[in-house]
Write a structure and sequence with these properties.
Strand content: 25-35%
Structural class: alpha/beta
Number of helices: 9
Shape: globular
Distance between the termini: 56 Å
Largest sheet: 10 strands, mixed
Number of strands: 22
Amino acid sequence: MRKGVRTLLAVAASALAVVGGLVVASPPAQAATLTEVTNFGTNPSNLRMHLYVPDNIGTRPAVVVAVHYCTGTGPAFYSGTQFAQLADQYKFIVIYPSATRSGACFDVSSSASLTHNGGSDSLGIVSMVRWVVANRDGDVNRVYATGASSGGMMTNVLLGAYPDVFKAGSSFMGVPFGCFATTDGSMWNSTCANGQLIKTAQQWGDQVRAAYPGYTGPRPRMQLFHGTDDTTLRYPNFGEAIKQWTNVHGLSQTPTYTDTPQSGWTRTRYGGSGTGVAVEGVSLAGVGHNLPLSGQALMAIQFFGLTSAPPSPSPSTQPSPSPSTQPSPSAPPSPSVSPSPQPQGACRIAYTVNPWNTGLTANITITNTGSSTVNGWALAFTLPGGQAITSGWNATYSPTSGAVTARNLSYNGTLAPGASTTIGFNANHTGNTGKPSSFTLNGSACAIA
């Protein structure tokens, strides 16, 4: 990599190390410690792997890959961000990869890294995930990626090239998948970095789809953070990434929900209004290349669906699932409270479907239109023929096709009069992308918005 580029990235990395969400936290004061894992599998580019496994992790924990910035290391990202602290609280495993080439940037440029099973850094990181699934009982259905700067770019690469591995990602200061591609053997693309690589949504989406030819399964959900004053990976990349991931999910680029989580932070969601949407963007007014800021790591974990109560490690507290039923990637397998009776007609359902190829994303908003509080709910509906749920959020779903019942989690079981909650799922289909014709909440029919 050119000397000027390394200098620029080193300056940006220095800013990362002293501002906001980085170095606010010291390593968690727990018996659990960061450990290095060697011989974790195929590792074409000689990456290093560090692993953080919280105490009392329980069974089948989720796995989060947290990827550092240029000039950084996995241990530096561990000590300088809040992901390990959040892992202690919500009981998931964190993998911290380290790039070992000069400049310590990740390869987001070569055709090998941008191709499924093509090699280089992306394959090495996937090998780390596979090792954790095999050796630490990680839940293959709850694998996520996040990262900052070079790590934010790698988050896009991992989700684009390995949609079969990652269920969602949160990219801080990244660029679209393939934006940094080069053909001269270098790892820097000035046109992309300066926000000058502009494509249509279809072109960006096609670039993702070409990374894994023939893949027809569900695509990962994507959350994007970017500061308007970023001079290292400039702000237009934020809009280009939104184009890309909305197209990948078959969504309009027009937000379906907008709010302000904090002054100067504008959050837009696409395809729904809850945290389980397929695409979410957070634009940060006046912010440069210094993310994540305080609280944003938690926003990423919430987007992944990991802030609900973790599954109990005791098998006796969980029902035995059907062998053909896969658990929700973010949900404990049983509701936290028993459903209460609901008066006839005292509920309303809004159901939206966003289909693509052989998959779809459904978002369901449940509103209590009655005069009494609902304490625990079970929503029953029948999926059209050929549809089968592959993953879900904010509820458990059983079975995955036919007559389905969605049950609340520990944090959304209570609905006061007039209150709403949004749940959703990804599903495969064989051509029929229609909606269920009716819904019942705790046995009573609901109106359909």
